[in-house]
Amino acid sequence: MEFDSENIQNKSEKPFEPGAARYGNFINYYQFNSVSKRLNAIPPNLLLDFKRSPVLCLDIGCNSGELTTGLYSHLRSELPDNIEFFILGIDLDSNLITRCKESNVYTEHITYQQMDIMSDSSQLQLFLQKFNQTQFDLITCFSTTMWIHLHHGDEGLNQFLKFISELGNYLLLEPQKWTSYKSVIRRMKRLQCKTFTLEKLKIRDTVDHLLKNFYLKNVINIYKFEETSWNRSLFLFKNDKSI
């Protein structure tokens, strides 16, 4: 499934309501999901296993960039001086990416790109080619799997998981629970917006699906971090076939 992500805020027939963001592109997301509380759950020495420079990270669904910026500072603090660290942040929403670029204080090390990873990944390959790499060392995906699942169904979710498991060495994922899906439906109905059909989805426990059915046998869950204050867990996966 493909959709035009250049101006996704204008897709609704009604005036855009921040709480009715159909792609998770909330304009004030970090007012409700604290950057600092998320970072507190992530050990700053997460990247110390990487001895090769540069270390490349892909942040999927970067929103307005606050967490991407915080993640760079948080992980950079423990890396040796001779290891360079670069992040590519991507999001569907061109308005959010504009905000990312305007507030970017690490312009030499953080790049932002508007793109739909489900329809075109060419920009990812171009980024990797700049560093003569074929994989990202770390891929982060915070509270994004639900939106991919809602728009692309079970097959789309599985395709996404397979794709990132091949694209990254380590995967740091924060999947939403089924209660979040139901909350989206209630919110959409309350705001009288077009909603989603949950009955079509057979995968009801994304966390269990990740842990038991990750698409590459060589991808293993190596750590579960503590839950955030909004009751979501962070999972770290490793691709054993990665260099």
In short:
With 243 residues, the protein is α/β, with parallel strands linked by helices. Helices cover 33% and strands 18% of the residues. The chain has seven helices and seven strands; from the N terminus they run αβαβαβαβαβααββ.
Q: Compute the number of strand runs.
A: 7
Uncertain stretches of 5 or more adjacent residues: 1-13
| Average pLDDT score | 84
| Inertia-based shape | globular
Identify the strand order in the major beta sheet.
3-2-1-4-5-7-6
Helix content: 25-40%
Query: Based on helices, strands and strand pairing, what is the structural class?
Result: alpha/beta
Give structural notes.
The longest helix has 23 residues, at 145-167. This protein is α/β, with parallel strands linked by helices. The chain is 33% helix and 18% strand. It starts with 34 loop residues before the first helix and ends with a strand. The chain is globular, with a radius of gyration of 17 Å. Strands 3-2-1-4-5-7-6 form a 7-stranded mixed sheet, sandwiched between helices. The protein has 7 helices and 7 strands, in the order H-E-H-E-H-E-H-E-H-E-H-H-E-E. It has helices at 35-40, 66-76, 94-103, 122-130, 145-167, 178-190, 206-213; strands spanning 55-60, 85-91, 110-114, 136-142, 168-174, 219-224, 235-239.
